[in-house]
Design brief:
By secondary structure, the chain is of the alpha+beta class. It has two domains: 135 residues, no CATH class; 258 residues, no CATH class. The protein is built from ten helices and 24 strands. The strands form seven sheets. A six-stranded antiparallel β-sheet has the order 12-1-2-19-20-21. The chain has a six-stranded antiparallel β-sheet with strand order 7-8-9-10-11-14, with helices on one face. α8 runs parallel beside α10 and α9 packs antiparallel against α10. It is globular, with a radius of gyration of 22 Å. It starts with 26 loop residues before the first strand and ends with a helix. The N terminus is likely disordered.
Amino acid sequence: MSFKSKSIISLIVALMLCLSSSAMACTAIYVGGGLTADGATLFARSEDLTNSYNKLMYVSEAGTYKAGELYKGCYGFTYTFAKDSYSFTTMSDDNWEGAGNVCPDCGETHKHNPYGAAGTNEMGLSVTATETLYTSSPAYDVDPYVDTGIEEAEITTILLSECATAKEAVQLLTKIYDEAGCNNGSGIFLADNTEVWYVENVTGHQYIAVKLNGNVAFVQPNQSVIALVDLDDTDNVIASKDIIAVAKQANTFVGDEAANTINYVLSYNAEQTPSSRMLDGLDYVYGKEMGEDVTFDDYTISNVDANGNIVPFYSNIVLDHAYTVADIVGYYKIPGIGKTGNLETHIFQIYSEDSLTDTIEWVAMDDAEYNAFVPYYPMLTTDTYKALQTSTAPATFVTEQPAEGLYYATSATKWTAEGRVKVDGFKVLPENWADSYYWSLDALSNLITYGDVSVSEIATVNCKMNALQNYCYAAFAEMQEAVAAAESTEAAAQIATEISMKTAEKVHTEVVALVNNLMK
């Protein structure tokens, strides 16, 4: 079977297969517990890179990394573990046996967890850490990235292995930033059941970390959102010691040095025009059309009020209703936010109670627009559904139309002696696509996006995916009740793991059936 049809040849789309030039267009959202229907803190992120790029979800077992072991990342960063690692859930790029143990990011085969995008460890620490940030500010020239500094690809693995709390995680991360530096810019969430820290950096050693509260909401699509910050608010702010000095040296400082305040976005990001994803996200959270005249104050956060006083971090976003997980799921259905370039999307739902069930992870692999988010109690999850761990050969690009298999028309940018050229061709999915959770959803997304699929067929897919999402909500209610009634932690872990696996299997089976029916 294939994605070809009488019109498929006309559906060529420009995709960048060269990873170094692929756009990292992730989108994050945060809604504090004071703004949700049940008091849970909600934050989420889509991991975006390119189309058709396998992701795995599994549990990294306790002790995977040993005290004293040297961890080598993808891009030059190394780290020596201080203790045997905690267990944690993770969603990594595929460098397992099916891919020949070759990392798709660095091309090497050493032991590492490439782009372990997000997860929660056995102690209840949750991390999402690959929301890339960019800058064109002269501040970068004063404090450039460090080749051997930590890259966002390694942050989750290091922090989830080593740290028990959000505070420990922010202290370790900023220590690494101070000593080893950063390889790139990031926006990072570090959370447990007591606090959530959000960290931004866009230069080699300068950063600002803020403790979020329950009455703030914001969206973050690869654009810095930390505005005016009073650095004297030491209970809620951790910043690099030279954050003002570097901006002053670059002649970009905006703030009041005497008052120890800095507007981080304006000091480190130069002019920042809201992206289309920012505009769409703001329309969603404001509950109205904002228009294109969105101002800086419509999307940034600050701890300084109009009178210059330190206050809890706030934004000007006023939600039109109390949020639930369903609202965050809906956010990732927005076209342009949910898209073929999503590798996976994760939602963290965290309650203030101190228990093994205070954190829920909701996970969708591939395009969030055509998907269902499966629930997990990560501190009780001991394994994941086998199709989430199916390692495969990568998708391949060919210039001649294949005679068989699943493929779709696209184009690639290739380097030639004459420079970069666009080459039309076809992306071919692995032969065993149906065995893989990721590839099955990738097949569905690309068939709908680039195939000859009718409006009524797309409506049928949406109806089925909505039904599967409702099945996931019901599965969580079942898991919640069954875990609460469990007679031991071991029994609770078995129940939670089995229900999440059963739910993922249901989604996978139904998606494979949808793909096969559409192919007919």
